[in-house]
Amino acid sequence: RDEVAELAHAVDTMAASLQKRIEAEQRFTADVAHELRTPLTGLHTAAELLPPGRPAELVRDRVGALRTLTEDLLEVARLDAHAEEPNLDVHPLGPLVERAVNGVGPVCVLRCDTDSGLSFVRTDARRLERILANLVTNARRHGAEPIEVTVRGTTVVVRDHGPGFPEELLRDGPRRFLTGAVERGQGTGLGLTIALGQAAAIGATVALRNGSAGGAVASVSLPGAAGTDGSSKCPRT
Description:
Blueprint: H1 2-48, H2 54-80, E1 89-92, H3 93-102, E2 108-113, E3 120-123, H4 125-142, E4 147-152, E5 155-159, H5 167-172, H6 190-201, E6 205-210, E7 216-221
Parallel strand pairs: 2-4
Antiparallel strand pairs: 1-3, 4-5, 5-7, 6-7
């Protein structure tokens, strides 16, 4: 019994130590991202004053990328700390998807399965748009056109026609600052992490797989809204 008690105490101590380390890393990430905000804002302002030309464009592009990375790190830190409070309400799914897709550029084929039935969902509109924008951006950056976004009932499917998700990503899930296979290109690896974290915050699920004919497929399943007539409209294509 003494040996079992000692083992249990050792496991508890190790778990507590690991939890403290995780929390310390989360605080460090949030602190660094927060401290970078102010100098990056000043750098952005200074970059706007540069004379027109290719060097100025490169500087502005890199500053913009750093600002995006900083905001992504802050968002990940908030999700890790479970500090996100969703604003849930009933929304027609079709218009939300259309707005999210249009926000990342006219490169997608948007379809709606009109036989799907319910197309009203109870969700946080801003967070859902963030999820879909991240998935479409990931498909654009690492996949190949055409990028298809399909609404099926209360599920939204984003598919590209590139090399597909790496096997280790499908097996282990997204890892920060890793995009997986070389053919998937460069990136921070935060887009999918944020998409899955925001999905959990609003009670949705994101399933990742590779299509039978190739390409990466991400499916976002949302909770339906009770008491609606299911008559939401989706854009025709």
